[in-house]
Amino acid sequence: MQLIAFIGFTVLVAFISYYKTRDTKESTSDGYFLGGRSLTAGVIAGSLLLTNLSTEQIVGLNGSAYESGLSVMVWETLAAIAMIVTAVFLLPRYLKGGLTTVPGFLAKRFDTSTKTLTSILFLSGYVVVLLPVILYSGSLAISGMFNLPEILGVTHTQSIWICVWGIGIIGAIYAIFGGLKAVAISDTINAIGLLVGGILIPIFGLIMIGDGSLFDGLSILTSEHPEKFKSMGEPTDPVPFYTIFTGMMLVQLFYWGTNQQIIQRALGAKNLKEGQKGLLLASFIKILGPIIVVLPGLIAFHIFGGNLESADSAYPMLVNKVLPDAWAGFFAAVLFGAILSSFNSVLNSSVTLFGIDVYKQHINKEADEKTVVKYGKIFGIALAIASMFIAPLIADAGSLFNYLQEINGIYSIPILTIIVVGYTTKRVPAIAAKIGLFSGCLLYIISQFILQPYFVESALETAKISGITNESELALIEAEAYPHFLDIMAILFVLNVIIMLVIGKIRPREEDYVQEYTKEVDITPWKYTKQIGIAICAIVIWVYYYFA
Description:
- By secondary structure, the chain is mainly α.
- The chain has one domain (2-17, 27-402, 533-546): Sodium/glucose cotransporter.
- The protein contains 24 helices and no strands.
- Helix 7 packs across helix 9 (156-209).
- It starts with a helix and ends with a helix.
Protein backbone atom coordinates (compact mmCIF):
# COMPACT_ATOMS: atom_id res chain seq x y z
CA MET A 1 0.00 0.00 0.00
CA GLN A 2 2.84 2.39 0.89
CA LEU A 3 4.60 1.63 -2.40
CA ILE A 4 1.39 2.15 -4.39
CA ALA A 5 0.80 5.54 -2.71
CA PHE A 6 4.41 6.58 -3.39
CA ILE A 7 4.37 5.59 -7.07
CA GLY A 8 0.85 6.96 -7.60
CA PHE A 9 1.61 10.45 -6.27
CA THR A 10 4.97 10.64 -8.10
CA VAL A 11 3.42 9.58 -11.44
CA LEU A 12 0.54 12.06 -10.93
CA VAL A 13 3.01 14.95 -10.53
CA ALA A 14 4.91 13.87 -13.65
CA PHE A 15 1.71 13.60 -15.72
CA ILE A 16 0.41 17.04 -14.68
CA SER A 17 3.83 18.61 -15.39
CA TYR A 18 3.88 17.08 -18.87
CA TYR A 19 0.27 18.08 -19.59
CA LYS A 20 0.82 21.69 -18.52
CA THR A 21 4.07 22.11 -20.51
CA ARG A 22 3.24 20.26 -23.72
CA ASP A 23 2.58 23.52 -25.64
CA THR A 24 5.59 25.47 -24.33
CA LYS A 25 8.20 26.12 -27.02
CA GLU A 26 11.33 24.61 -25.46
CA SER A 27 13.50 25.34 -28.52
CA THR A 28 13.84 29.04 -27.62
CA SER A 29 15.91 30.47 -24.76
CA ASP A 30 12.91 32.14 -23.10
CA GLY A 31 10.76 29.06 -23.60
CA TYR A 32 13.28 26.62 -22.14
CA PHE A 33 15.12 28.71 -19.56
CA LEU A 34 12.26 30.95 -18.37
CA GLY A 35 9.13 28.91 -19.12
CA GLY A 36 8.20 31.30 -21.93
CA ARG A 37 8.01 34.16 -19.38
CA SER A 38 4.56 32.87 -18.47
CA LEU A 39 4.83 31.99 -14.76
CA THR A 40 2.08 33.30 -12.47
CA ALA A 41 2.22 34.22 -8.78
CA GLY A 42 1.09 30.86 -7.40
CA VAL A 43 3.54 28.88 -9.54
CA ILE A 44 6.41 31.25 -8.66
CA ALA A 45 5.67 31.03 -4.90
CA GLY A 46 5.37 27.24 -4.94
CA SER A 47 8.54 26.79 -6.95
CA LEU A 48 10.50 29.20 -4.75
CA LEU A 49 9.49 27.36 -1.59
CA LEU A 50 10.20 23.87 -2.94
CA THR A 51 13.50 24.89 -4.51
CA ASN A 52 14.59 26.19 -1.12
CA LEU A 53 13.07 23.50 1.09
CA SER A 54 14.80 20.15 0.74
CA THR A 55 16.31 17.48 2.94
CA GLU A 56 19.47 19.40 3.83
CA GLN A 57 17.13 21.98 5.39
CA ILE A 58 14.42 19.69 6.77
CA VAL A 59 16.95 17.31 8.32
CA GLY A 60 19.71 19.85 9.01
CA LEU A 61 17.64 22.64 10.59
CA ASN A 62 15.62 20.23 12.71
CA GLY A 63 18.93 18.76 13.86
CA SER A 64 20.13 22.26 14.80
CA ALA A 65 16.84 22.91 16.63
CA TYR A 66 17.25 19.59 18.48
CA GLU A 67 20.62 20.87 19.75
CA SER A 68 20.10 24.63 20.09
CA GLY A 69 16.37 25.37 20.14
CA LEU A 70 14.14 27.89 18.40
CA SER A 71 16.86 30.44 17.59
CA VAL A 72 17.78 28.64 14.34
CA MET A 73 14.40 29.74 12.91
CA VAL A 74 16.23 32.85 11.70
CA TRP A 75 17.12 30.95 8.51
CA GLU A 76 13.38 30.86 7.75
CA THR A 77 11.88 34.04 9.21
CA LEU A 78 14.53 36.48 7.99
CA ALA A 79 14.14 35.04 4.49
CA ALA A 80 10.72 36.73 4.38
CA ILE A 81 12.32 40.17 4.68
CA ALA A 82 14.94 39.34 2.03
CA MET A 83 12.19 38.33 -0.40
CA ILE A 84 10.39 41.62 0.20
CA VAL A 85 13.59 43.56 -0.57
CA THR A 86 13.95 41.51 -3.76
CA ALA A 87 10.33 42.19 -4.79
CA VAL A 88 10.63 45.94 -4.19
CA PHE A 89 14.18 46.70 -5.29
CA LEU A 90 15.81 43.97 -7.40
CA LEU A 91 13.05 42.29 -9.42
CA PRO A 92 11.83 45.50 -11.14
CA ARG A 93 15.39 46.12 -12.33
CA TYR A 94 15.89 42.52 -13.47
CA LEU A 95 12.68 42.49 -15.51
CA LYS A 96 13.29 45.97 -16.89
CA GLY A 97 16.53 44.67 -18.40
CA GLY A 98 14.83 41.52 -19.76
CA LEU A 99 17.39 39.33 -17.97
CA THR A 100 17.57 35.55 -18.35
CA THR A 101 20.46 35.19 -15.90
CA VAL A 102 21.67 37.43 -13.08
CA PRO A 103 25.20 37.55 -14.56
CA GLY A 104 23.58 38.89 -17.73
CA PHE A 105 23.14 42.23 -15.93
CA LEU A 106 26.85 42.29 -15.13
CA ALA A 107 27.73 42.12 -18.84
CA LYS A 108 25.72 45.28 -19.46
CA ARG A 109 26.82 47.09 -16.31
CA PHE A 110 30.50 46.11 -16.35
CA ASP A 111 31.74 43.85 -19.17
CA THR A 112 31.53 40.33 -20.59
CA SER A 113 34.47 38.94 -18.61
CA THR A 114 32.84 40.02 -15.32
CA LYS A 115 29.71 38.13 -16.35
CA THR A 116 31.71 35.04 -17.27
CA LEU A 117 33.67 35.06 -14.00
CA THR A 118 30.42 35.30 -12.03
CA SER A 119 28.80 32.48 -14.00
CA ILE A 120 31.84 30.28 -13.38
CA LEU A 121 31.64 31.06 -9.66
CA PHE A 122 27.96 30.08 -9.62
CA LEU A 123 28.64 26.89 -11.57
CA SER A 124 31.59 25.97 -9.34
CA GLY A 125 29.44 26.28 -6.24
CA TYR A 126 26.64 24.24 -7.79
CA VAL A 127 28.84 21.49 -9.24
CA VAL A 128 31.40 20.98 -6.49
CA VAL A 129 29.14 21.32 -3.46
CA LEU A 130 25.42 21.86 -3.94
CA LEU A 131 24.30 19.14 -6.38
CA PRO A 132 26.20 16.27 -4.69
CA VAL A 133 25.09 17.41 -1.21
CA ILE A 134 21.42 17.59 -2.27
CA LEU A 135 21.62 14.08 -3.74
CA TYR A 136 23.46 12.59 -0.78
CA SER A 137 21.41 14.21 2.00
CA GLY A 138 18.17 13.36 0.19
CA SER A 139 19.20 9.76 -0.29
CA LEU A 140 20.27 9.52 3.35
CA ALA A 141 16.88 10.79 4.50
CA ILE A 142 14.83 8.52 2.22
CA SER A 143 16.94 5.48 3.08
CA GLY A 144 16.88 6.15 6.84
CA MET A 145 13.24 7.19 7.23
CA PHE A 146 11.81 4.25 5.36
CA ASN A 147 14.43 1.59 6.17
CA LEU A 148 15.22 0.86 2.52
CA PRO A 149 18.18 -1.48 3.23
CA GLU A 150 15.81 -3.92 4.94
CA ILE A 151 13.00 -3.51 2.40
CA LEU A 152 15.30 -3.95 -0.62
CA GLY A 153 17.64 -6.46 1.02
CA VAL A 154 20.76 -4.38 0.40
CA THR A 155 23.47 -2.70 2.50
CA HIS A 156 23.21 0.91 3.67
CA THR A 157 25.81 2.02 1.11
CA GLN A 158 24.01 0.23 -1.71
CA SER A 159 20.68 1.85 -0.73
CA ILE A 160 22.36 5.28 -0.89
CA TRP A 161 23.65 4.55 -4.41
CA ILE A 162 20.18 3.37 -5.50
CA CYS A 163 18.50 6.52 -4.12
CA VAL A 164 21.14 8.84 -5.58
CA TRP A 165 20.71 7.46 -9.09
CA GLY A 166 16.92 7.28 -8.81
CA ILE A 167 16.64 10.92 -7.71
CA GLY A 168 19.31 12.03 -10.17
CA ILE A 169 17.83 10.39 -13.25
CA ILE A 170 14.25 11.57 -12.59
CA GLY A 171 15.45 15.06 -11.64
CA ALA A 172 17.55 15.29 -14.80
CA ILE A 173 14.56 14.32 -16.95
CA TYR A 174 12.48 17.14 -15.41
CA ALA A 175 15.20 19.78 -15.56
CA ILE A 176 16.94 18.96 -18.83
CA PHE A 177 14.09 17.79 -21.05
CA GLY A 178 11.24 19.79 -19.52
CA GLY A 179 12.86 23.18 -18.94
CA LEU A 180 11.95 25.68 -16.22
CA LYS A 181 8.18 25.44 -16.65
CA ALA A 182 8.14 21.67 -15.99
CA VAL A 183 10.36 22.23 -12.95
CA ALA A 184 8.17 25.06 -11.64
CA ILE A 185 4.86 23.19 -12.10
CA SER A 186 6.12 19.99 -10.48
CA ASP A 187 7.51 22.15 -7.65
CA THR A 188 4.12 23.78 -7.09
CA ILE A 189 2.30 20.45 -6.76
CA ASN A 190 4.99 19.05 -4.48
CA ALA A 191 4.91 22.29 -2.43
CA ILE A 192 1.29 21.62 -1.51
CA GLY A 193 2.14 18.04 -0.59
CA LEU A 194 5.16 19.08 1.47
CA LEU A 195 3.20 21.70 3.38
CA VAL A 196 0.55 19.09 4.22
CA GLY A 197 3.02 16.31 5.03
CA GLY A 198 5.48 18.59 6.78
CA ILE A 199 2.80 20.00 9.10
CA LEU A 200 1.46 16.52 9.89
CA ILE A 201 4.78 15.38 11.44
CA PRO A 202 4.75 17.94 14.32
CA ILE A 203 0.97 17.43 14.73
CA PHE A 204 1.42 13.67 15.16
CA GLY A 205 4.40 14.34 17.45
CA LEU A 206 2.49 16.74 19.70
CA ILE A 207 -0.47 14.34 19.85
CA MET A 208 1.93 11.62 21.01
CA ILE A 209 3.41 13.90 23.69
CA GLY A 210 -0.08 14.98 24.81
CA ASP A 211 -1.34 11.38 24.95
CA GLY A 212 -3.94 12.07 22.27
CA SER A 213 -4.33 15.84 22.70
CA LEU A 214 -2.53 18.25 20.36
CA PHE A 215 -2.81 21.26 22.69
CA ASP A 216 -1.81 19.28 25.78
CA GLY A 217 1.26 18.14 23.85
CA LEU A 218 2.19 21.72 22.96
CA SER A 219 1.67 22.81 26.58
CA ILE A 220 3.89 20.00 27.89
CA LEU A 221 6.61 20.74 25.34
CA THR A 222 6.80 24.48 26.10
CA SER A 223 6.51 24.12 29.89
CA GLU A 224 9.11 21.36 30.23
CA HIS A 225 11.68 22.89 27.86
CA PRO A 226 11.35 26.70 28.13
CA GLU A 227 15.07 27.11 27.35
CA LYS A 228 14.42 25.68 23.87
CA PHE A 229 11.78 28.31 23.00
CA LYS A 230 13.96 31.43 22.84
CA SER A 231 14.15 33.28 19.54
CA MET A 232 17.42 35.06 20.37
CA GLY A 233 20.46 32.82 19.97
CA GLU A 234 23.28 32.79 22.50
CA PRO A 235 26.95 33.32 21.49
CA THR A 236 27.51 29.55 21.48
CA ASP A 237 24.44 28.83 19.32
CA PRO A 238 24.79 28.24 15.55
CA VAL A 239 23.28 31.69 14.87
CA PRO A 240 23.82 34.26 17.66
CA PHE A 241 21.05 36.87 17.66
CA TYR A 242 23.33 39.81 16.84
CA THR A 243 24.40 38.20 13.53
CA ILE A 244 20.94 39.06 12.19
CA PHE A 245 22.25 42.63 11.90
CA THR A 246 25.61 41.64 10.36
CA GLY A 247 26.05 38.85 7.83
CA MET A 248 22.74 36.97 8.14
CA MET A 249 20.76 39.58 6.20
CA LEU A 250 23.46 39.65 3.50
CA VAL A 251 23.33 35.86 3.13
CA GLN A 252 19.54 36.02 2.81
CA LEU A 253 19.72 38.83 0.23
CA PHE A 254 22.21 36.88 -1.85
CA TYR A 255 20.16 33.70 -1.70
CA TRP A 256 16.72 35.20 -2.43
CA GLY A 257 17.79 38.15 -4.57
CA THR A 258 20.81 37.15 -6.66
CA ASN A 259 21.17 33.35 -6.55
CA GLN A 260 20.38 32.09 -10.07
CA GLN A 261 18.66 28.86 -8.95
CA ILE A 262 16.16 30.91 -6.89
CA ILE A 263 15.63 34.16 -8.76
CA GLN A 264 15.20 32.32 -12.10
CA ARG A 265 11.61 31.57 -11.03
CA ALA A 266 10.81 35.26 -10.66
CA LEU A 267 12.65 36.09 -13.91
CA GLY A 268 10.16 33.80 -15.65
CA ALA A 269 7.17 35.86 -14.44
CA LYS A 270 4.67 36.94 -17.10
CA ASN A 271 4.93 40.49 -15.71
CA LEU A 272 6.25 42.41 -12.70
CA LYS A 273 2.91 42.23 -10.87
CA GLU A 274 2.89 38.41 -10.93
CA GLY A 275 6.56 38.27 -9.93
CA GLN A 276 6.03 40.58 -6.93
CA LYS A 277 2.87 38.77 -5.83
CA GLY A 278 4.69 35.44 -6.08
CA LEU A 279 7.60 36.65 -3.95
CA LEU A 280 5.29 38.19 -1.33
CA LEU A 281 3.14 35.05 -1.13
CA ALA A 282 6.27 32.94 -0.66
CA SER A 283 7.58 35.34 2.00
CA PHE A 284 4.37 35.07 4.03
CA ILE A 285 4.39 31.25 3.87
CA LYS A 286 8.09 31.32 4.82
CA ILE A 287 7.17 32.75 8.24
CA LEU A 288 5.34 29.47 8.88
CA GLY A 289 8.46 27.51 7.86
CA PRO A 290 9.66 26.84 11.45
CA ILE A 291 6.59 24.62 11.96
CA ILE A 292 8.16 22.21 9.44
CA VAL A 293 11.91 22.73 9.89
CA VAL A 294 12.28 23.68 13.58
CA LEU A 295 9.35 22.43 15.68
CA PRO A 296 9.92 18.72 14.85
CA GLY A 297 13.48 19.04 16.20
CA LEU A 298 12.13 20.36 19.51
CA ILE A 299 9.56 17.55 19.66
CA ALA A 300 12.32 15.00 18.96
CA PHE A 301 14.34 16.45 21.86
CA HIS A 302 11.42 15.80 24.21
CA ILE A 303 10.55 12.33 22.91
CA PHE A 304 14.12 11.01 22.73
CA GLY A 305 15.39 12.89 25.79
CA GLY A 306 18.34 14.47 24.02
CA ASN A 307 20.03 11.04 23.83
CA LEU A 308 20.44 10.63 20.08
CA GLU A 309 24.00 10.00 18.87
CA SER A 310 23.60 12.44 15.96
CA ALA A 311 21.46 15.57 15.93
CA ASP A 312 20.85 15.12 12.20
CA SER A 313 19.08 11.82 12.94
CA ALA A 314 16.40 13.65 14.99
CA TYR A 315 13.97 14.21 12.10
CA PRO A 316 14.24 10.74 10.49
CA MET A 317 13.84 9.13 13.94
CA LEU A 318 10.79 11.29 14.70
CA VAL A 319 9.15 10.38 11.38
CA ASN A 320 9.69 6.69 12.09
CA LYS A 321 8.24 7.15 15.57
CA VAL A 322 5.09 9.20 14.95
CA LEU A 323 4.02 8.73 11.31
CA PRO A 324 1.12 6.26 10.91
CA ASP A 325 1.77 3.52 8.33
CA ALA A 326 -1.13 4.75 6.20
CA TRP A 327 0.68 8.06 5.60
CA ALA A 328 4.14 6.63 4.94
CA GLY A 329 3.78 6.21 1.15
CA PHE A 330 2.38 9.72 0.67
CA PHE A 331 5.07 11.30 2.86
CA ALA A 332 7.81 9.38 1.03
CA ALA A 333 6.49 10.76 -2.29
CA VAL A 334 6.33 14.30 -0.90
CA LEU A 335 9.84 14.10 0.53
CA PHE A 336 11.06 12.62 -2.75
CA GLY A 337 9.47 15.60 -4.52
CA ALA A 338 11.26 18.06 -2.23
CA ILE A 339 14.62 16.44 -2.89
CA LEU A 340 13.88 16.26 -6.60
CA SER A 341 12.88 19.92 -6.63
CA SER A 342 16.17 21.22 -5.24
CA PHE A 343 18.19 18.95 -7.52
CA ASN A 344 16.38 19.76 -10.75
CA SER A 345 16.21 23.48 -9.92
CA VAL A 346 19.97 23.74 -9.42
CA LEU A 347 20.55 21.62 -12.53
CA ASN A 348 18.20 23.79 -14.63
CA SER A 349 20.00 26.94 -13.45
CA SER A 350 23.38 25.37 -14.26
CA VAL A 351 22.17 24.54 -17.78
CA THR A 352 20.94 28.13 -18.16
CA LEU A 353 24.24 29.66 -17.00
CA PHE A 354 26.32 27.40 -19.23
CA GLY A 355 24.14 27.74 -22.33
CA ILE A 356 23.78 31.52 -22.28
CA ASP A 357 26.83 32.82 -20.41
CA VAL A 358 29.48 30.31 -21.50
CA TYR A 359 28.50 28.44 -24.70
CA LYS A 360 26.83 31.32 -26.53
CA GLN A 361 29.32 33.89 -25.26
CA HIS A 362 32.64 32.08 -25.71
CA ILE A 363 32.27 28.75 -27.57
CA ASN A 364 29.86 29.48 -30.44
CA LYS A 365 28.89 33.13 -30.73
CA GLU A 366 26.95 32.47 -33.93
CA ALA A 367 24.77 29.74 -32.39
CA ASP A 368 21.03 30.13 -32.81
CA GLU A 369 18.68 29.67 -29.84
CA LYS A 370 17.91 26.03 -30.68
CA THR A 371 21.63 25.19 -30.67
CA VAL A 372 22.19 27.01 -27.35
CA VAL A 373 19.40 24.98 -25.75
CA LYS A 374 20.75 21.74 -27.29
CA TYR A 375 24.27 22.15 -25.91
CA GLY A 376 22.91 23.41 -22.61
CA LYS A 377 21.04 20.11 -22.30
CA ILE A 378 24.19 18.11 -23.14
CA PHE A 379 26.08 19.98 -20.42
CA GLY A 380 23.21 19.28 -18.00
CA ILE A 381 23.34 15.54 -18.70
CA ALA A 382 27.10 15.46 -18.08
CA LEU A 383 26.66 17.51 -14.90
CA ALA A 384 23.91 15.25 -13.58
CA ILE A 385 25.95 12.09 -14.21
CA ALA A 386 29.03 13.59 -12.54
CA SER A 387 27.05 14.65 -9.46
CA MET A 388 25.50 11.17 -9.19
CA PHE A 389 28.97 9.62 -9.08
CA ILE A 390 30.29 12.16 -6.55
CA ALA A 391 27.30 12.21 -4.15
CA PRO A 392 27.80 8.83 -2.41
CA LEU A 393 31.48 9.65 -1.84
CA ILE A 394 30.78 12.56 0.56
CA ALA A 395 29.47 10.39 3.41
CA ASP A 396 32.17 11.67 5.78
CA ALA A 397 31.59 15.39 5.14
CA GLY A 398 30.20 16.00 8.65
CA SER A 399 27.32 18.41 9.33
CA LEU A 400 26.16 19.15 5.80
CA PHE A 401 23.83 22.07 6.60
CA ASN A 402 26.40 24.11 8.56
CA TYR A 403 29.11 23.19 6.05
CA LEU A 404 26.96 24.42 3.15
CA GLN A 405 26.20 27.76 4.81
CA GLU A 406 29.85 28.46 5.55
CA ILE A 407 31.33 27.24 2.26
CA ASN A 408 28.82 29.26 0.20
CA GLY A 409 30.33 32.44 1.66
CA ILE A 410 33.29 32.01 -0.69
CA TYR A 411 31.25 33.21 -3.65
CA SER A 412 27.97 34.59 -2.22
CA ILE A 413 29.25 37.84 -0.69
CA PRO A 414 31.55 38.82 -3.60
CA ILE A 415 28.69 38.31 -6.09
CA LEU A 416 26.20 40.22 -3.91
CA THR A 417 28.72 43.06 -3.56
CA ILE A 418 29.22 43.66 -7.27
CA ILE A 419 25.48 43.44 -8.00
CA VAL A 420 24.58 45.95 -5.25
CA VAL A 421 27.36 48.35 -6.30
CA GLY A 422 26.40 47.83 -9.95
CA TYR A 423 22.80 48.92 -9.38
CA THR A 424 23.48 51.72 -6.88
CA THR A 425 26.32 53.48 -8.72
CA LYS A 426 26.84 54.75 -12.27
CA ARG A 427 30.60 55.25 -12.67
CA VAL A 428 32.26 52.26 -10.92
CA PRO A 429 34.23 50.47 -13.71
CA ALA A 430 34.56 46.81 -14.69
CA ILE A 431 38.04 46.47 -13.17
CA ALA A 432 36.53 47.26 -9.77
CA ALA A 433 34.05 44.40 -10.13
CA LYS A 434 36.82 41.94 -11.05
CA ILE A 435 38.94 43.02 -8.10
CA GLY A 436 35.86 42.82 -5.84
CA LEU A 437 35.20 39.21 -6.94
CA PHE A 438 38.83 38.18 -6.53
CA SER A 439 39.46 39.93 -3.19
CA GLY A 440 36.16 38.75 -1.72
CA CYS A 441 36.82 35.09 -2.52
CA LEU A 442 40.48 35.17 -1.49
CA LEU A 443 39.99 37.04 1.80
CA TYR A 444 37.12 34.76 2.85
CA ILE A 445 39.16 31.62 2.14
CA ILE A 446 42.13 32.99 4.13
CA SER A 447 39.86 34.01 7.00
CA GLN A 448 37.78 30.85 7.38
CA PHE A 449 40.17 28.10 6.35
CA ILE A 450 43.54 29.42 7.56
CA LEU A 451 43.13 32.05 10.30
CA GLN A 452 39.97 30.70 12.00
CA PRO A 453 41.33 27.17 12.70
CA TYR A 454 44.61 28.67 13.96
CA PHE A 455 42.93 31.06 16.44
CA VAL A 456 40.44 28.45 17.68
CA GLU A 457 43.12 25.79 18.25
CA SER A 458 45.35 28.30 20.06
CA ALA A 459 42.50 29.43 22.34
CA LEU A 460 41.49 25.86 23.21
CA GLU A 461 45.09 24.83 23.94
CA THR A 462 45.53 27.83 26.23
CA ALA A 463 42.28 26.98 28.03
CA LYS A 464 43.30 23.36 28.59
CA ILE A 465 46.71 24.42 29.89
CA SER A 466 44.85 26.65 32.35
CA GLY A 467 42.90 23.62 33.56
CA ILE A 468 39.55 24.38 31.94
CA THR A 469 37.77 21.11 31.07
CA ASN A 470 34.08 22.02 31.33
CA GLU A 471 32.46 21.50 27.91
CA SER A 472 30.20 24.58 28.08
CA GLU A 473 33.14 26.80 29.04
CA LEU A 474 35.25 25.37 26.22
CA ALA A 475 32.36 25.93 23.77
CA LEU A 476 32.16 29.60 24.81
CA ILE A 477 35.94 30.00 24.45
CA GLU A 478 35.78 28.46 20.98
CA ALA A 479 32.90 30.76 19.98
CA GLU A 480 34.77 33.86 21.19
CA ALA A 481 38.18 32.90 19.77
CA TYR A 482 37.34 34.17 16.29
CA PRO A 483 34.49 36.18 14.76
CA HIS A 484 31.44 34.21 13.59
CA PHE A 485 31.52 33.44 9.85
CA LEU A 486 28.46 35.68 9.37
CA ASP A 487 30.40 38.57 10.94
CA ILE A 488 33.29 37.88 8.57
CA MET A 489 30.86 38.06 5.65
CA ALA A 490 29.61 41.47 6.82
CA ILE A 491 33.16 42.79 7.28
CA LEU A 492 34.23 41.60 3.83
CA PHE A 493 31.07 42.99 2.21
CA VAL A 494 31.80 46.47 3.60
CA LEU A 495 35.49 46.16 2.68
CA ASN A 496 34.69 45.09 -0.88
CA VAL A 497 32.20 47.93 -1.34
CA ILE A 498 34.85 50.43 -0.14
CA ILE A 499 37.45 48.93 -2.51
CA MET A 500 35.08 49.21 -5.47
CA LEU A 501 34.03 52.77 -4.63
CA VAL A 502 37.65 53.89 -4.24
CA ILE A 503 38.55 52.40 -7.63
CA GLY A 504 35.47 54.10 -9.08
CA LYS A 505 36.70 57.41 -7.70
CA ILE A 506 40.24 56.97 -9.01
CA ARG A 507 39.38 55.40 -12.36
CA PRO A 508 35.68 55.96 -13.16
CA ARG A 509 33.79 54.81 -16.25
CA GLU A 510 33.88 57.22 -19.15
CA GLU A 511 30.08 57.43 -19.24
CA ASP A 512 27.34 56.97 -16.66
CA TYR A 513 25.63 53.58 -16.75
CA VAL A 514 21.96 53.90 -17.73
CA GLN A 515 19.74 50.81 -17.61
CA GLU A 516 17.64 50.37 -20.73
CA TYR A 517 14.06 49.05 -20.72
CA THR A 518 13.88 46.09 -23.13
CA LYS A 519 10.04 46.02 -23.04
CA GLU A 520 10.09 42.20 -23.01
CA VAL A 521 8.02 42.23 -19.82
CA ASP A 522 5.41 44.65 -18.47
CA ILE A 523 7.09 46.25 -15.43
CA THR A 524 4.03 47.97 -13.96
CA PRO A 525 4.38 47.21 -10.22
CA TRP A 526 1.64 45.68 -8.08
CA LYS A 527 0.08 48.59 -6.20
CA TYR A 528 -0.03 46.75 -2.84
CA THR A 529 3.60 45.55 -2.84
CA LYS A 530 4.93 47.99 -0.24
CA GLN A 531 1.90 47.75 2.08
CA ILE A 532 1.95 43.94 2.10
CA GLY A 533 5.73 43.99 2.53
CA ILE A 534 5.51 46.24 5.60
CA ALA A 535 2.81 44.00 7.10
CA ILE A 536 4.95 40.87 6.67
CA CYS A 537 7.97 42.62 8.24
CA ALA A 538 5.79 43.57 11.22
CA ILE A 539 4.74 39.91 11.65
CA VAL A 540 8.39 38.79 11.65
CA ILE A 541 9.28 41.37 14.33
CA TRP A 542 6.26 40.28 16.42
CA VAL A 543 7.33 36.62 16.24
CA TYR A 544 10.77 37.51 17.57
CA TYR A 545 9.31 39.70 20.29
CA TYR A 546 6.84 37.01 21.37
CA PHE A 547 9.53 34.34 21.78
CA ALA A 548 12.24 36.67 23.12
